[in-house]
Amino acid sequence: MTRDHNTETDESVREDPRTDGGASAEGADATSLDPWGSSTISDYRKLFEEFGIEEFDAVLPEVPDPHYLMRRGVIFGHRDYRPVAEAMRDGDDFAVLSGFMPTGDPHIGHKLVFDEIIWHQEQGGDAYGLIADLEAHSARGMSWAEIDEHARDYLLSLLALGFDPEEGELYRQSDNRELQDLAFELGSKANYSEFEAIYGFDGSTNVSHVQSVVTQMADILYPQLEEPKPTVIPVGPDQDPHVRLARDLADRMRFFKVTEAYASFELRDAERPLVAAAYDAREEFAEDPETPRCEEAGEWLSAADLDAHGVVAAESARESAVEKLANAGMEPLRPRVRFLDANATDEAFDALIEAVEGEKRRYDEHVDAFDLSFDEADELAREVEIEHGGYGFRAPSSLYHRFMTGLTGGKMSSSIPASHISLLDDPEEGYDKVKSATTGGRETAEKQRELGGEADKCPVYELYAYLLSGDDDAFATEVYEECVGGERLCGGCKEQAAELMEEFLEDHQEKREEMEEVLADLDISTESARRDVAPGDD
Question: Where do we find the motif 'KMSKS' region here (predicted)?
């Protein structure tokens, strides 16, 4: 679930020690998100436009005591994080989960996810860390012996960085029967054509790989098995396809679909804001604004200036909405909340109708309620579902962090030792790797003093912003301003970073040793009993 760019400098960078993620890899694909590939992101802004990822800056003021990765823009995007932030502020239940595919040593890029899980746990969230061993075996062909070795290393580093196993849960996909049972149920709501469209699977894809995807969907929803709650999945943007599919499956598992409606006919999502705009404008067209008619609304909508009403919609959506309104004739246009029977038993559907208070109207496959808000209706539907044996899942949220640039340029990769610093590296080796790293410096010291360095293109500055400055924003800002102002030269900057990295690795590895006994006492296996049978090629 987690794997292993440049913009112009502005005042927000200087004030907030933010980073745009360092140098972009040449030829990076800005729009293809491959959970198992080696894609890098050349322009993070395109993710907002093309995949609907929301900018994290918009929700940042709503987060109490935000983590420094949030403050510095390393966490740049989210899907539906507000329910998590609200639960955090109000002291309500929420959860955080992310997973690690044990295909190599944990490195400083993975530390971003470790930190996000631990921070959410410290804010009161139920925390889950998982080893995606089924995925590693099916998608990467890793042997179980290799998986065991790397899994142990990930767990020790997560514990050493501060994960509290008494307040959280660690598990392996292969050992968690509840998870596998949930994956089986989710699989009944997915089909292979979706996997072809989302992941590019074809006839050569082995079935275990397909199964591992459904298992990851179950991972994402696993924190809600006991009770529905806001849940956030911190990942890199390449994992967004998993999050989108999980959100869809959470919705498909629900007993009832709750929508806003205005008449007896059904509206598509694209049509709903158009009909809502017509209802809001009823004073302009209705003979009796207290009882506007669908036919009147259709006539108004066919000629309305939608821009003036703050509505953006495709012309095809307008045409279809107008047609539905015209066909409804003199039926009153009246807001209501609609409960659609998606997967409910007859008993659950009858119980829902009984539970709806106020004016309501029952149809064969749905019931309309006129005195409930959407939020009230959604919560009522969830309560009835749970009472009748359903899951009541909430759509999971997600956070997206920038990829760390490799020390040699390009993407940091576990398969290129010189590009990353493993959390298992000898501290002196970590020191040497930083000293040998590419920088954003000028050709000569004279030019550096004259023009300043290019911190936004510098993997070494990223080390300060992502890790070495810790929670000290003032220090990160100082490094940035001294670099771009020409006061800081690359030799001294790398020496300072190398010393800090050596100290970090020394401290981390001491804590890893202390966690050996803790790990031994946890209810998680570090040795698989499975036999090695190489999966087919993908």
Answer: 411-415
